Amino acid sequence: MKRIDGLLKVCLMVVMGTVCLWGETHNRRFINSSWQYGIIDDNFNVIIPPKYKYAGKYSEGAVNVELSQGEWALIDKNENVLCKVKAKRLSSLHNGWAIADTESNERFYINKKGKVMGNYGFASEFNEGKAYVSPENSGGYFINSDGEKISEDLPYRSAVYAENGLWLVYCNGEGVINSNYQEIVPCARPAIDIAGEGYFVSMLPEDLSRCCFLDSKGKRVGSVTFKHSSRVYNGIAFIKKPESSDAYIYDLKNDKLTGPLKNCERMNKESKNIVLIKKIEDKWKYVVVNRNNEQICPVYFDEFMDESDEMLWMQKDGKDFIVNSKGMYWSFAK
């Protein structure tokens, strides 16, 4: 249930595009055939051409890019350098601060003006005006955007923001705390993730090949176990069982399973609209399917490769394609 950090090995040849927009949330990195990174928008317009060693995501008026080995910068949409920093990694901006990882595995914060704050063993991104820091990767506490401590000492080695004031925490296991730092799922699960609408997905302690849904109080929901699931929308999730390549539609509130949907290669966890990558038996091709089990992209692909930032990487006839959540596609020649 981890987000994939890489994207595509491509050469530029736009097939579909619209008016270029520099939006706050719909700009994503891509890679050309020389493994240089750039930024495209949700409709595949090139925002920043591919010429960086790495590019992250546009956020709060800036993109985190690697200029050369160990040298990072925050740049604006015109590629003006806002600040530079020596680091192993630099994150995108969240609530005014980016995280820099040092070669000695320490973390500090830096803003667009180059101001540096803190030095920690672990430091989370800022969300809702606060971040979790752990000085020595043991216990920790929350700080505000001025670096001031705003919580009591807590036992967690790390805490990562999920959604709606909830944080995924790790101590001797994984759990969930709310904005008041109260555990709503005890920190004892082998792995846990947010599923949406107040539900969580958790590995079964007794069988790590299977997962189940939990409610907002950490109580198990329903009788169904599974290997993979989509996000939950309107109380419905798509799931795959360990013993089958088929997918099923699961009504969590009524504990009702319907299906199967045959030959599902992939369960998408980020996009609301794209749910499945399904193999069509009579064509031996892959199609992109929405929550109504409808093919939303007209192309029949040969291979599913990867997913990142709500986009899919597919292949057809030796060419690479990106497919977005609307079913639009961008094609590249190798």
Protein architecture, described:
The chain is mainly beta and 334 residues long. The chain contains no helices and 33 strands. The strands form 9 sheets. The protein has a 4-stranded antiparallel β-sheet with strand order 4-5-6-7, with no helix packed on it. Strands 8-9-10-11 form a 4-stranded antiparallel β-sheet, with no helix packed on it. It has a 4-stranded antiparallel β-sheet with strand order 15-16-17-18, with no helix packed on it.
Summarize the structure.
The chain is mainly beta and 334 residues long.
Give me the secondary-structure category: mainly beta
What's the arrangement of strands in the largest beta sheet? 4-5-6-7
How would you state the average pLDDT, rounded?
Answer: 84
Quantity of strands, as a count: 33
Distance between termini?
A: 30 Å
Strand content: over 45%
Low-confidence stretches: 1-26
Please give the largest β-sheet: 4 strands, antiparallel
- Classify the helix fraction into a percent range: under 10%
Calculate Rg over CA atoms: 21 Å
Number of helices: 0
Label the overall shape. Answer: flat
